[in-house]
Each structure stands twice: as C-alpha cells, then as structure tokens.
Amino acid sequence: MDKSIMFGPADLGWAPTLAEVGEQMSAVLGFPLGPVTGGESLHGYSDGTHAWLTFGQADNEPFRSHPYDLAVSTGGDVEPILHALCDRLAEQGRWRLMLIFHDECVRSTHFPCDEW
Q1: CB of 109 within 8 A of CB of 99?
Q2: Which of 1, 11, 94, 111 could form a disulfide with 71 if both were Cys (CB 3.0 to 4.6 A apart)?
Q3: Element housing 96 (H / E)
Q4: Edge-to-edge strands of the sheet including 95-101?
C-alpha cells in the first residue's frame, strides 16, 4: 500500500502482540480484524473499506519504534480516512504514529518527519 499509518506503543516498555493491537485497531476502525491465512497479518473489511495490519521488526528507526503498519483501502480517496484514524489514535496517547503517503512522512507524533 502506498498510504498507511506506521505506529508503535508510546511506552517503549510495552510490547503488545499483533492480536492485542488488532483488537485495539478494530475498535478504532469500527470493524473486526482477523488473521490472514498463511501470514503474519490481520485483515478486516466493512462497507467497501478494507484494512490490513502487519508487524515488521527492524533495528533502525523509525521502524524499531513504529513496527506496526495499518493500511486502508476504499473505492475512493483514503487520505481523509487515514487522517481521521491518525487523529483518533493520537487522542488515545498510547501510540507513536507516522502517517505515510507515497513513501513520505506526512505527519508524526514522536518522530521528526524531516528525518524520514
């Protein structure tokens, strides 16, 4: 996906499982995310909107502190949806967030976009 939210826990001592994160993202999305057969990801959909949640471990920043990726697809423009999701997640104060469009950091809560 060329547009997604990279994120990780704001408390770097907290290491939630993909399933735990999936439950929290399901609540924010408004539809459940479930395991994808044969992969380490979750997927869900409702009313033409699909979401995929993946986890990728890396040693370099910002990937180390933002190991989860939430990609969303719709029949239309996904940017307003991702901005709204980013706002809702930021309000929780539990996550480090980076909104990525076409491999560019659009906004971030904890990582300077100019270092992306």
Answers
A1: no
A2: 1
A3: strand 95-101
A4: 34-35, 41-46, 49-55, 68-73, 3-9, 95-101, 104-108
The residue length of the chain stands at 116
Contact 7, 66 (CB under 8 A): yes
CA distance 6 to 18: 14
Compute φ and ψ for 90, nearest 5 degrees. -65, -35
Q: Could you report the per-residue pLDDT of 35-64, keeping only the tens digit for each?
A: 998 778 999 999 999 999 999 989 999 999
Q: What does the alpha-carbon distance between residue 97 and residue 34 come to, in Å, rounded to a whole number?
A: 22
Contact, 113 vs 105, CB < 8 A?
yes
Low-confidence ranges of the chain (pLDDT < 70): 1
Element of type H or E holding 106: strand 104-108
Count of CB atoms situated within 10 Å of the CB of 12:
10
